[in-house]
Amino acid sequence: xxxxxxxxxxxxxxxxxxxxxxxxxxxxxxxxxxxxxxxxxxxxxxxxxxxxxxxxxxxxxxxxxxxxxxxxxxxxxxxxxxxxxxxxxxxxxxxxxxxxxxxxxxxxxxxxxxxxxxxxxxxxxxxx
Length: 128
Hints:
By secondary structure, this protein is an alpha+beta fold. It has helices at 13-25, 38-43, 63-72, 75-86, 91-103, 106-109; strands spanning 5-8, 29-32, 53-55, 60-62.
């Protein structure tokens, strides 16, 4: 199986910080919105620039579901966290609302955690 592509907003300091954090614990090929190929864009939803995505050979995960899939690929601790949260009633709704709450306030979060580029691209493209 190919390494999943983690699609993120490469103009958002908080988004880049979170992408770097995920890369510390999981194996992903980070691809910023500005680096997307036409084939990759075709796989994404129309309003792809409103949240993160995870592209695998078989599926496309978006927003909270993408974050959940990424965390589940971050070792034993990540899998345990996802499994525990999945036991909560309405976990899918909570996941998406939580993701949207953070994503809609990323400029605020960026004041506390931000970076200017993401390193570690496996695709060989230059990251911002």
